[in-house]
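Quick one, probably user error.
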C-alpha cells in the first residue's frame, strides 16, 4: 500500500520496505514530502517559530534525500 502521509513514508523507510513500492509509489512518497516542505511556512508562520521551522525543514529534506531526490 502506498503511503498517504509523511509519518507513513518515514515508517516505510525505517522498516526498509520501500522495495515493495514501484516507481509510481516512490514518486508518490516524494510528492508527499515535497508538499510537506511547501506547507511549512503556513505551519510555522510566526518569527518565534523559526528554529522549529528549520529543524522540520532539515528533517524533511533529509527524508527526501533518502527517497532518492
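Nope, works fine. Designed sequence:
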Amino acid at each position: 500500500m502506498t503511503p498517504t502521509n509523511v509519518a507513513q513514508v518515514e515508517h516505510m523507510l525505517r522498516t526498509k520496505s520501500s522495495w515493495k513500492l514501484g516507481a509510481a509509489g516512490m514518486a508518490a512518497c516524494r510528492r508527499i514530502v515535497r508538499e510537506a516542505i511547501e506547507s511549512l511556512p503556513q505551519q510555522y508562520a510566526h518569527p518565534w517559530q523559526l528554529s522549529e521551522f528549520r529543524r522540520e525543514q532539515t528533517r524533511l529534506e533529509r527524508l527526501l534525500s533518502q527517497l532518492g531526490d
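The chain has a mean pLDDT of 94.
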